[in-house]
Specification:
- By secondary structure, this protein is α/β, with parallel strands linked by helices.
- The chain has 8 helices and 7 strands, in the order ααααββαββαβααββ.
- It has a 7-stranded mixed β-sheet, sandwiched between helices.
- A hairpin with a 7-residue loop joins strand 6 and strand 7.
- The chain starts with a helix and ends in a 7-residue tail after the last strand.
Length: 242
Protein backbone atom coordinates (compact mmCIF):
# COMPACT_ATOMS: atom_id res chain seq x y z
CA UNK A 1 0.00 0.00 0.00
CA UNK A 2 2.76 2.44 0.97
CA UNK A 3 4.72 1.54 -2.17
CA UNK A 4 1.71 2.28 -4.36
CA UNK A 5 1.07 5.60 -2.63
CA UNK A 6 4.70 6.58 -3.11
CA UNK A 7 4.53 5.66 -6.79
CA UNK A 8 1.28 7.63 -7.20
CA UNK A 9 2.90 10.63 -5.48
CA UNK A 10 5.83 10.59 -7.92
CA UNK A 11 3.52 10.45 -10.91
CA UNK A 12 1.24 13.16 -9.54
CA UNK A 13 4.28 15.37 -9.03
CA UNK A 14 5.28 14.82 -12.67
CA UNK A 15 1.74 15.67 -13.78
CA UNK A 16 1.69 18.83 -11.69
CA UNK A 17 5.05 19.92 -13.09
CA UNK A 18 3.69 19.37 -16.58
CA UNK A 19 5.39 18.38 -19.80
CA UNK A 20 8.56 20.02 -21.04
CA UNK A 21 8.09 22.75 -23.64
CA UNK A 22 11.56 22.61 -25.18
CA UNK A 23 13.40 20.01 -27.23
CA UNK A 24 12.21 17.55 -29.85
CA UNK A 25 9.03 15.56 -29.40
CA UNK A 26 11.10 12.50 -28.45
CA UNK A 27 13.10 14.48 -25.89
CA UNK A 28 9.94 15.91 -24.34
CA UNK A 29 8.40 12.45 -24.04
CA UNK A 30 11.51 11.03 -22.42
CA UNK A 31 11.76 13.93 -19.95
CA UNK A 32 8.11 13.59 -18.94
CA UNK A 33 7.67 9.82 -18.88
CA UNK A 34 11.17 8.75 -17.82
CA UNK A 35 10.53 9.35 -14.09
CA UNK A 36 7.09 7.72 -14.37
CA UNK A 37 7.97 4.64 -16.40
CA UNK A 38 8.03 2.06 -13.60
CA UNK A 39 4.74 3.17 -12.06
CA UNK A 40 3.10 4.18 -15.34
CA UNK A 41 0.84 1.16 -15.80
CA UNK A 42 -0.53 0.97 -12.27
CA UNK A 43 -1.54 4.64 -12.27
CA UNK A 44 -2.91 4.76 -15.82
CA UNK A 45 -4.95 1.59 -15.26
CA UNK A 46 -7.43 3.81 -13.39
CA UNK A 47 -7.50 6.47 -16.09
CA UNK A 48 -7.15 4.88 -19.52
CA UNK A 49 -10.55 3.26 -19.97
CA UNK A 50 -11.70 1.09 -22.86
CA UNK A 51 -8.36 -0.42 -23.81
CA UNK A 52 -9.34 -4.01 -23.08
CA UNK A 53 -12.66 -3.52 -24.88
CA UNK A 54 -10.84 -2.19 -27.96
CA UNK A 55 -8.41 -5.12 -28.04
CA UNK A 56 -11.21 -7.65 -27.62
CA UNK A 57 -13.10 -6.16 -30.56
CA UNK A 58 -10.14 -6.06 -32.95
CA UNK A 59 -10.54 -8.79 -35.61
CA UNK A 60 -6.98 -10.08 -35.22
CA UNK A 61 -6.91 -13.81 -35.93
CA UNK A 62 -4.39 -16.62 -36.30
CA UNK A 63 -1.58 -15.50 -38.59
CA UNK A 64 -2.44 -11.79 -38.32
CA UNK A 65 0.21 -9.08 -38.32
CA UNK A 66 -0.56 -6.49 -35.65
CA UNK A 67 1.02 -3.07 -35.05
CA UNK A 68 0.43 -0.77 -32.08
CA UNK A 69 1.48 2.81 -32.80
CA UNK A 70 2.39 4.82 -29.69
CA UNK A 71 2.46 1.59 -27.67
CA UNK A 72 4.48 2.89 -24.70
CA UNK A 73 5.00 0.18 -22.07
CA UNK A 74 3.27 -2.51 -24.12
CA UNK A 75 0.57 -2.96 -21.47
CA UNK A 76 -2.05 -3.54 -24.15
CA UNK A 77 -0.29 -6.72 -25.29
CA UNK A 78 -1.65 -8.49 -22.24
CA UNK A 79 -5.25 -7.70 -23.19
CA UNK A 80 -4.93 -10.06 -26.17
CA UNK A 81 -4.54 -13.01 -23.82
CA UNK A 82 -3.47 -16.37 -25.31
CA UNK A 83 -4.39 -15.39 -28.87
CA UNK A 84 -1.30 -13.16 -29.09
CA UNK A 85 0.79 -16.32 -29.50
CA UNK A 86 -1.15 -17.20 -32.67
CA UNK A 87 -0.30 -13.94 -34.47
CA UNK A 88 2.41 -13.94 -37.11
CA UNK A 89 3.92 -10.80 -35.59
CA UNK A 90 3.20 -7.97 -33.18
CA UNK A 91 5.08 -4.66 -33.23
CA UNK A 92 4.98 -2.05 -30.47
CA UNK A 93 6.21 1.29 -31.82
CA UNK A 94 6.98 4.36 -29.70
CA UNK A 95 9.42 7.27 -29.41
CA UNK A 96 10.07 7.10 -25.66
CA UNK A 97 13.02 4.86 -24.63
CA UNK A 98 11.98 4.76 -20.96
CA UNK A 99 8.55 3.35 -21.77
CA UNK A 100 9.93 1.00 -24.41
CA UNK A 101 12.34 -0.48 -21.86
CA UNK A 102 9.29 -1.60 -19.87
CA UNK A 103 7.69 -2.90 -23.09
CA UNK A 104 10.80 -4.95 -23.91
CA UNK A 105 10.65 -6.64 -20.51
CA UNK A 106 6.97 -7.39 -21.07
CA UNK A 107 7.73 -8.85 -24.51
CA UNK A 108 10.32 -11.14 -22.91
CA UNK A 109 7.72 -12.42 -20.46
CA UNK A 110 5.26 -13.06 -23.28
CA UNK A 111 7.66 -15.22 -25.29
CA UNK A 112 5.90 -18.55 -25.82
CA UNK A 113 8.22 -21.54 -25.47
CA UNK A 114 11.09 -19.54 -26.92
CA UNK A 115 8.99 -18.22 -29.82
CA UNK A 116 9.20 -14.45 -29.86
CA UNK A 117 6.64 -12.82 -32.14
CA UNK A 118 6.60 -9.44 -30.34
CA UNK A 119 9.05 -6.73 -31.38
CA UNK A 120 9.59 -3.41 -29.61
CA UNK A 121 10.63 -0.59 -31.96
CA UNK A 122 11.80 2.94 -31.24
CA UNK A 123 10.48 5.07 -34.10
CA UNK A 124 8.22 7.97 -35.01
CA UNK A 125 4.73 6.61 -35.63
CA UNK A 126 4.11 9.31 -38.23
CA UNK A 127 6.53 7.75 -40.70
CA UNK A 128 7.36 4.24 -39.45
CA UNK A 129 6.62 1.45 -41.92
CA UNK A 130 6.79 -2.26 -41.06
CA UNK A 131 8.41 -4.72 -43.45
CA UNK A 132 5.03 -6.39 -44.10
CA UNK A 133 1.62 -4.75 -44.40
CA UNK A 134 -0.24 -5.31 -41.11
CA UNK A 135 -3.77 -6.68 -40.93
CA UNK A 136 -4.54 -4.62 -37.85
CA UNK A 137 -3.15 -1.32 -36.51
CA UNK A 138 -4.28 0.44 -33.37
CA UNK A 139 -3.68 3.55 -31.25
CA UNK A 140 -4.44 3.45 -27.53
CA UNK A 141 -4.39 6.90 -25.94
CA UNK A 142 -1.66 7.89 -28.38
CA UNK A 143 -3.28 10.25 -30.90
CA UNK A 144 -3.75 12.95 -28.25
CA UNK A 145 0.01 12.75 -27.58
CA UNK A 146 1.05 13.16 -31.22
CA UNK A 147 1.45 16.76 -32.46
CA UNK A 148 0.44 15.89 -36.04
CA UNK A 149 -2.12 13.20 -35.32
CA UNK A 150 -3.60 13.35 -38.83
CA UNK A 151 -0.21 12.40 -40.24
CA UNK A 152 -0.09 9.44 -37.83
CA UNK A 153 -3.56 8.27 -38.91
CA UNK A 154 -2.65 8.69 -42.58
CA UNK A 155 0.53 6.68 -42.05
CA UNK A 156 -1.43 3.91 -40.34
CA UNK A 157 -3.81 3.85 -43.29
CA UNK A 158 -0.96 3.74 -45.79
CA UNK A 159 0.83 0.82 -44.12
CA UNK A 160 -2.26 -1.42 -44.00
CA UNK A 161 -3.38 -3.62 -46.85
CA UNK A 162 -6.85 -2.85 -48.29
CA UNK A 163 -9.47 -4.24 -45.94
CA UNK A 164 -7.18 -3.87 -42.91
CA UNK A 165 -8.55 -2.71 -39.57
CA UNK A 166 -7.65 0.42 -37.61
CA UNK A 167 -8.69 0.73 -33.96
CA UNK A 168 -8.47 3.80 -31.72
CA UNK A 169 -9.34 4.52 -28.10
CA UNK A 170 -8.57 7.97 -26.69
CA UNK A 171 -9.82 11.00 -24.83
CA UNK A 172 -11.78 13.55 -26.84
CA UNK A 173 -14.04 16.59 -26.78
CA UNK A 174 -17.61 15.56 -27.62
CA UNK A 175 -19.85 17.91 -29.59
CA UNK A 176 -22.19 18.23 -26.60
CA UNK A 177 -19.41 18.65 -24.03
CA UNK A 178 -20.14 22.29 -23.17
CA UNK A 179 -18.10 23.83 -20.35
CA UNK A 180 -16.50 20.51 -19.44
CA UNK A 181 -14.67 20.48 -22.78
CA UNK A 182 -12.82 23.62 -21.72
CA UNK A 183 -11.97 22.05 -18.36
CA UNK A 184 -10.56 18.84 -19.85
CA UNK A 185 -8.69 20.62 -22.64
CA UNK A 186 -6.89 22.82 -20.11
CA UNK A 187 -6.36 20.01 -17.58
CA UNK A 188 -4.77 17.58 -20.02
CA UNK A 189 -3.06 20.29 -22.05
CA UNK A 190 -0.82 21.01 -19.05
CA UNK A 191 0.78 17.61 -19.69
CA UNK A 192 0.87 18.00 -23.49
CA UNK A 193 -2.18 15.77 -24.01
CA UNK A 194 -4.09 17.49 -26.80
CA UNK A 195 -7.79 16.69 -26.57
CA UNK A 196 -9.72 17.31 -29.78
CA UNK A 197 -13.20 17.03 -31.19
CA UNK A 198 -11.75 16.32 -34.65
CA UNK A 199 -10.46 12.77 -34.21
CA UNK A 200 -13.74 10.94 -34.71
CA UNK A 201 -14.92 12.89 -37.76
CA UNK A 202 -11.53 12.34 -39.42
CA UNK A 203 -11.52 8.63 -38.66
CA UNK A 204 -15.09 8.25 -39.88
CA UNK A 205 -14.17 10.07 -43.08
CA UNK A 206 -11.08 7.98 -43.82
CA UNK A 207 -12.40 4.54 -42.87
CA UNK A 208 -15.51 2.43 -43.14
CA UNK A 209 -16.80 2.49 -39.53
CA UNK A 210 -17.28 -0.92 -37.91
CA UNK A 211 -17.81 0.15 -34.30
CA UNK A 212 -17.99 3.53 -32.57
CA UNK A 213 -18.82 4.51 -28.99
CA UNK A 214 -18.52 7.76 -27.04
CA UNK A 215 -18.19 7.12 -23.31
CA UNK A 216 -17.03 8.66 -20.03
CA UNK A 217 -14.69 7.28 -17.39
CA UNK A 218 -13.54 8.07 -13.87
CA UNK A 219 -10.39 10.06 -13.11
CA UNK A 220 -8.03 9.19 -10.20
CA UNK A 221 -8.23 11.66 -7.30
CA UNK A 222 -11.06 13.62 -8.95
CA UNK A 223 -14.22 12.00 -7.57
CA UNK A 224 -17.44 12.90 -9.34
CA UNK A 225 -15.76 13.95 -12.57
CA UNK A 226 -15.86 11.75 -15.66
CA UNK A 227 -13.64 12.33 -18.66
CA UNK A 228 -14.97 11.71 -22.18
CA UNK A 229 -13.32 9.11 -24.39
CA UNK A 230 -14.20 7.26 -27.58
CA UNK A 231 -13.68 3.79 -28.97
CA UNK A 232 -13.53 3.48 -32.75
CA UNK A 233 -12.85 0.60 -35.13
CA UNK A 234 -12.83 1.09 -38.88
CA UNK A 235 -11.87 -0.80 -42.00
CA UNK A 236 -9.62 0.51 -44.74
CA UNK A 237 -11.63 0.67 -47.97
CA UNK A 238 -10.62 -1.91 -50.55
CA UNK A 239 -10.11 0.81 -53.19
CA UNK A 240 -7.01 2.53 -54.63
CA UNK A 241 -5.80 5.83 -53.24
CA UNK A 242 -4.94 4.82 -49.68
Amino acid sequence: MHVRLAADARILWSLLRGAAREGSHAQRLQAFYGPQARGYDAFRERLLHGRCELIQRLPARRGSRVVELGGGTGRNLEFFGPRIHRFASVEVVDLCPALLAVAAQRADRLADGGRRNVRVIEADVSDYRPAHAPDCVYFSYALTMIPDWRCAVDNAMAMMAPGGTLGVVDFHLPANGGWSNRLWKAWFGHDAVRLSGEHLPYLQERLEPVHCEQLRGSVPFLPGLRVPYYLFIGRKPATPGY
